[in-house]
Amino acid sequence: MSAESPHVKGGIGQSILRKEDARFIRGKGNYVDDVKLPGMLYLDITRSPYAHAKITAIRTDKALKVPGVLAVITGKDLEAAGLAWMPTLMSDKQMVLPTDTVMYQAQEVAGVVADSRYAAADGAAAVEVDYEPLPVVTNPFKALEPGAPVIRTDRAEKSNHIWHWETGDKSGTDEAMTSAAVRVSQDLYIPRIHVSSMETCGCVAHMDAVSGRFTIWMTTQAPHAIRTVYALVTGLPEQNIRVISPDIGGGFGGKVPVYPGYVIASVASIKTGHPVKWIEDRSENLQADSFARDYHIHAEVGATKDGHVSALRVKTLADHGYTDAAANPSKFPAGLFHIITGSYPFAKAFVEVDAAYTNKPPGGIAYRCSFRVTEAVYTIERMMDILAHKLNVDPAELRLQNFIPPEAFPYRSALGWTYDSGNYAGALKKAMEIIDYAGLRREQAEKRAKGELMGIGISSFTEIVGAGPSQTFDILGIKMFDSAEVRIHPTGKVIARFGTKSQGQGHETTYAQILAEELGIPADDIRVEEGDTDTAPYGLGTYASRSTPTAGAAASMAARKIREKALHIAAHLLEVSPDDIEWKDYAFRVKGVPGKSKTMAEVAFAAYTNHPKGTEAGLEATDYYDPPNMTYPFGSYICVVDIDKETGQVKVRRFVAVDDCGTIINPMIVDGQIHGGLTMGFAPSLLEEIQYDEDGNVHGGTFMDYLVPTAVETPNWETAKTVTPSPHHPIGAKGVGESATVGAPPAIVNAVMDALRPYGVEHIDIPLHPWKVWQVLHGGGKSA
Ligand code: CDP
Questions:
Q1: Are residues 260 and 114 in the same domain?
Q2: For the domain that residue 487 is a member of, what is the CATH number?
Q3: Which of these, 95, 145, 405, 775, is most buried using a 10 Å CB contact count?
Q4: Average pLDDT score over the chain
């Protein structure tokens, strides 16, 4: 935007400050725990110490005697109401409270309602439960062995196998793999991790017995879908259910599912006639919900002898815990894992995934990733480096040689996705230039000669976001479109409501910027609201970086509908035919008559005071946007690490991230998204992992042993952009929220493996803790 070129204050491309920060930085946000209602009660939950056990008795008498305790809710109470089990998002079912068996450590066993949080906690501790421990299985490979203890005895199939899913050309891939001159293969484990959002999960449920209205303030990323599911499961009339998602302190996918606590609090409110608040504490959050990944992957890549990739074959075992609660579109049980062909033109590919039950909490949430894309990107980007090593070529050269070229877009991948646009070489070359790749390789050679350990890692990822085209994308049958409702008031000020729900992404700012650009009204004059099912239009919510591709597009489309009507009013005001009017430089102008024009604000006033005969008063429009395709953001990341030979400690010295998310609405917000995402990609690469021992005890259930990076560990991120607009999005924007979480891990791991090249080790599973690296350095090329 040059100083002379016309612009609207706060339009697209401007780094305006976030509207929502006015309340956030003053500590004036309104989170669920800030909701206080008269007569409000508190729920606490008794949890299982066992990962698998029969419940032989639950005694509540002592708990009921704790001063302040009013009720104890058990599975038997819920069973009577048909609510002991509830559906998961993947058409499996999940216990709200168990009637006879617990299946993971920290599972909810009873809910205690009291007049204070402290009394509820004392009551929960006083519930007495008798358990008979059952055999435990926490390893999915063992879970599928004959004779393994069957976890879900409630199912007709007496096995721990949940489903098998495959896609691609099996025989063609087998043939291509057999005839490939060069083949590489690798086992990769992506461990279970946790989203660790700053705010834990919670709700305030309120059934008003007089009006029959049920209101729930809830930490949910998808309020409308929750309302519909509540209506379907409980039989409550949908118009009497109001879901309010107030400010959310980070969701990252972890606040998409319905957790048992929400339902127990709802039942408690119905039972007591009072509003009931439930807020998880940190350990409950870390031990019982919001888990992701847990994929055991075997990948093979075939290539010609001069390094052109030809075939990709992947076999995966997915550990879902005791129920399949993954938040995937129903057609894709392994999410969008089949984006695994990445940025490369594989002619043949075949992917299969089997899913297993284990005695762990439900996993599989799409943690800052569009349904298993992180797992896919990690695999292909690790495999490209392993192939480069086998061929003895530079990993940057191998990628540049193989990338799908810009002129091949729209490009249909071997696994059936049509990539909208891309310029992969452009992004990688830019990253190489910024970081001085050639200089780094020279430095590395010098250091290697001196016995020092320095590594350079690349990740050139392709993402898939914007779920989605409703033909293929739904959650529990509800189609995945999204919406915007825009109203211009007489004085030219705007209120706009959306079906999505920001959890820190800054929608109040960026949606206003899109509308400012489309309507010629300053962003300051546009108020954005989300998260209240009584007021917002229906939408599927915010996760999987879908808000910009869906609701952002709906904002444009609704604004354009308004412009169509406004043009007629402008023609009436300017006393010319509508054909003589054009929308140009943020105003309605009479073609060829400079100076004869009307602003949107002038038209808005007329829409309520002086609208033409035969035209409805008012200026508003709603759009339900069903995207024609997904958007495919991409990027190239280069990471430089130094490794301390004595301790095995990995230090990220530099990290350059070149991202391309098409048209950028707010560069500062996008950079914030990238910074946060990179940190969330750095975390599982080097630190985070939730482990379970053979008895199903969770290791990593507190922040003492679940190592979330702080500002001390987090490297300095260097960011840059290329812009390749999406051809099908109204403003050319692609999603960006998860790109960095998805793209960072392979860059970091590739850098570490590059540093360890002299030790002859091809792969170490994440997280790359110092002890694992140390073992390689001191154990003759073998990692643990
Ligand atoms: O669905 P979610 O909001 O998590 O992800 P997103 O659509 O990728 O957007 C994340 C934030 O980045 C939002 O505030 C977007 O408006 C902003 N963004 C942007 O400014 N330009 C883009 N091309 C994409 C996103």
A1: yes
A2: 3.30.365.10
A3: 95
A4: 96
